[in-house]
């Protein structure tokens, strides 16, 4: 997730407003930044890697003297955080500048085609295909608006774009598709930005562009059209009355809730992985005689879930290990035939990196799954894949957990294909189930949020929660427990339900709340048995189950229903959503700040 801004004013004060707007978007990305304006008919582009303020110290964005400026603060998804990969990106002739937030899925084929026809590329980003496509539009004799239309009709994926050109220096063209983009109607000019905080000090009259819309901003007017047929769109501006702090969270009270709600989009972006990296990673894994997943905390829970995916899809044993125990427990078994899949959203976790360093020293192959391009993990991995979830500000991992799961599921599927373990129909079936997940998660968030609040209200005074699941739902139970524990500080226990009789059931007494992850999968009959044994000892049962499962509903004191038809290996993604919301609302109910839980840091970079 990156931040884009643009402003076109009557006066030549655009660079100051664009820079201040970028400062308010820093939380959307902070590994590189840039701005472009038009001075006396020429493009002036200033950009570099690093933090926004540091870059400004070095290259002084405010030197751009123009009434039209676009800007960008980056969270790298394609291409390391370097000056060349920073936005804005320009065409061959320096007539077009583009800033972009999103993921262009088909950029490689477009880039090959454009290079073939003589275009010179300067970066490794997906974004850079856009100015060259606009340049192609110019070559076909189109004006700027139609050249941008030509370009966006060629690209696939998610994009919020702001585009300027020396050929028509009186307008900014904005395009929106599955990445947020708003227009601000000011008294001194027109603004565009990835979200409201950026431009709220200049105007509170906002129009949110919808997917498939293109807008032309002039300093005193704007028009919006549909990309599909060019038909005009009329939409009255929304008057925003948020405080700047609330605006930073797009109206949500906390980053954690905002990030829970972002999951449909982060999952869509997680499905836009580079085929070549999926193939490379599967190739490395295919060679492994021993395969470990090494991670900490929530990322470890993603690894536990992934071990079921690899086992059932690729018929491969992948052993999830808590990073801090890896060397002690398995160090002597590591050799050149070992593959270590290191999962870390920050890419900076001390225990995970220590395990990785040890594995590399023993000649193992290390593969990284991370959310942070340019992190240490990307530098020490033989190959890595980015989760594309965008920066996660809340200390408790939410969207990065589900994006890890959807990435790991795709790797397991790719490995299964490589090993010929699934038929074409089974592969197609799993793929279509994967692509249903973002919409299912969207539905779960909408349908369960108010139900979760009721449950929080009913159990708010409890001082112990038990989480149980079977099979892959064990991972979901572990993660639900960690969420509740780390932000509401309520002692909680999670374990595989089959373990109950081996000890944990001793803790059950009248009224103890037991949260049961009970999808309609191969473990359902056994989990019903676990529910019965808990109830027999007075437990209160809160079940997360498939919609319409009457049997489990009748056995439960409270239920949260998940839409039918979720593939059994993908259930952790939708089934964890109510648990994230439960932890969040319980913390708020208890008066805690979910974004900054006590004693915790977002990334544990020390032993
Ligand atoms: C999860 O909510 C916590 N923030 C923590 O357990 C986290 O998952 C763990 O520290 C691993 O972080 P990483 O994914 O950045 O390696």
Which structural class should the secondary elements be placed in? alpha/beta
Terminal-residue CA separation: 29 Å
CATH architecture of the largest domain: 3-Layer(aba) Sandwich
CATH evolutionary superfamily of the largest domain = Glucose-6-phosphate isomerase like protein, domain 1
> Which regions contain 5 or more consecutive residues with pLDDT less than 50?
none
DSSP helix fraction: 25-40%
Strand order of the largest sheet: 3-2-4-1-10-9-11-15
Tell me the fraction of residues in β-strands, as a range: 15-25%
Q: What radius of gyration results from the CA coordinates?
A: 25 Å
Number of helical stretches of at least 4 residues: 19
Mean pLDDT: 94
Count of distinct strands = 25
Which cofactor or ligand species appear? 2-deoxy-2-amino glucitol-6-phosphate
- CATH topology group of the largest domain: Rossmann fold
Number of domains: 2
Largest sheet: 8 strands, antiparallel
CATH class of the largest domain: Alpha Beta
**Shape annotation:** globular
Q: Summarize this, please?
A:
It is built from 19 helices and 25 strands.
Question: How would you describe this protein?
Answer:
The protein is of the alpha/beta class and 607 residues long. The chain has two domains: 2-248, Glutamine Phosphoribosylpyrophosphate, subunit 1, domain 1, CATH 3.60.20.10; 265-589, Glucose-6-phosphate isomerase like protein, domain 1 (Rossmann fold, 3-Layer(aba) Sandwich). 39% of the residues lie in helices and 23% in strands. The chain has 19 helices and 25 strands. Helix 17 links the parallel strand 23 (513-518) and strand 24. Helix 10 (297-314) runs parallel beside helix 14 and helix 14 (399-418) packs antiparallel against helix 15. The model has no long low-confidence stretch (mean pLDDT 94). It binds 2-deoxy-2-amino glucitol-6-phosphate (AGP). The site of 2-deoxy-2-amino glucitol-6-phosphate has 15 residues, from helix 10.
